[in-house]
Amino acid sequence: MKGDSVIITASPEDIEQISKLNNFMFAGATLRIKAYERGSTPPSAGSEEKKAVSQSAQETKEKFRAILATRYDGNLKLLNLSALAQDAGLLEMGFGTFDGKTTSKLFPALMVVADQLFKTWQEKRDAIVSVSLANNGLSDVSGVTALAQTFPDIKNLDLSSNNFKDLKSIASWRWKFRSLETLVLSNNPIETQEPNFNVEIMKWFPRLQNLNYVQVRTPEEVAATLEAVNTPIPISGPDFRDVSQVGENFIRQFVALYDSDRNALLSSFYDAESVHSIAINMSAPRNREHSTPVPGWDAYMKHSRNLVKLTYAGPRLNRRYKGIQAIQQVWSELPATRHPDLATESAKYLIECHPLPGLADPSGQNPGGVDGLIITMHGEFEEQNTSTEKALRSFSRTFVLGPGAPGGSPIRVVSDMLGLRAWAPLAMPSNQANIATQAPPPNVNIEQQQKEAMAGQLMEKTGMTMEFAVLCLEQTGWQLPQAFDAFQQNRDKLPPNAFIAGIAG
């Protein structure tokens, strides 16, 4: 915080999205958002003038660059920041000690200069794989916490021969360094004063394979753990309970016409009572191995009806489009698309269909309602832009189909809800997906079943993922009331990925 301003460090992708909120109204005030290069100093509130960098500051920056150059090993992709108090260059600059007061000034400045050496995030990821902070006399990481913001993707970190006494001394890096594979904490008091620290450390860093030169997980175990975290609830195979192939025929026509002739699609299945909405989910989880660039959301943003983001009645109502004309106007402003072919690329879809009783009868002859269908389709599409780059998006679309009004199409869309998110591979059903409906075999672990049920209850009450619900229960001795109390007391401290996508903590 600086006066009425809030300064945020964010990735280039997030900066692009955050900047779109410039001039939005929030709490009765107009937001003013501007991006600054890493290391530059934002102006004070109300000022837009840039301050010139002093000659002395420029000289200091060049000295830091020279020091970093001598400490970088290109073959190992290692940035060696060990024993900084003994560095000749830093001693010459007057940094003769490396205590808390010195690190609070020196290290952040050093990280700013290091960050400016790279043009892109990918270039930085490729160049710096390992970092050493050994032999620096650190009692905690508060003075060097900027490392996690500057190099969040490192795989190897050496913290040996410091003065870390317990887990609290490195807790600031909990849930940071999500790619960390090797961590060295040898020759620190924590080894003797907290002998079981490795158990907690493994929870903090899900990709960790080696701790203090000992293998704690195999690559296969890491992959299995991450898969379990990404899909805490088994994904069942599609359940398609159609009626006279109405659902199948609708989906086949919808996909083809939405890509080729949206007006014909509207006249075939929509009427004056059909309702349509679009919601953008920018916080959906993505696998790092498939983190393709996310195209801009400009074409969809003004139509998005994400009720987590929209809290005012006006926008919520205005972005619920009713009738052919209103829907046609929205669709005409959206990019052209190409969905995978249902016949040859069916693996890119998960589609479910179920009967849905109690729909309003458009003829008015059945006060108790009529039967219809609810169809949910998950998949992807490619936007047909003028650029040569593919713009892929993942989507989930839910339709409610019912009988048409007299004189109209026999089938009509009652409701059409489209959810959009950044592209990610479709989560496929587990091989064990359908065993939930079967009676458990005699040797099923009853205690494990009870724990899973308890974790499910905590997930439902809190919105946490399975991983965090289990952690919370483990730390409270599997006592559900105490686990819920612990969640209430610490919910503001939990990271965003502790919650199921789309559910606020």
Automatic annotation (TrEMBL):
Its main location: nucleus. Coiled coil: none annotated. PROSITE patterns: LRR (PS51450), NTF2_DOMAIN (PS50177), TAP_C (PS51281). Keywords: Cytoplasm, Leucine-rich repeat, mRNA transport, Nucleus, Repeat, Transport. Residues 449-502 form the TAP-C domain. GO terms for molecular function: RNA binding. One of its GO terms (cellular component) is nucleus. Residues 246-420 form the NTF2 domain. GO terms for biological process: poly(A)+ mRNA export from nucleus. Residues 38-57 are annotated as: Disordered. SUPFAM superfamilies: L domain-like (SSF52058), NTF2-like (SSF54427), UBA-like (SSF46934). The keyword Repeat applies. It comes from the Eukaryota. Belongs to the NXF family. Involved in the export of mRNA from the nucleus to the cytoplasm. This is mRNA export factor MEX67. It comes from Amorphotheca resinae ATCC 22711.
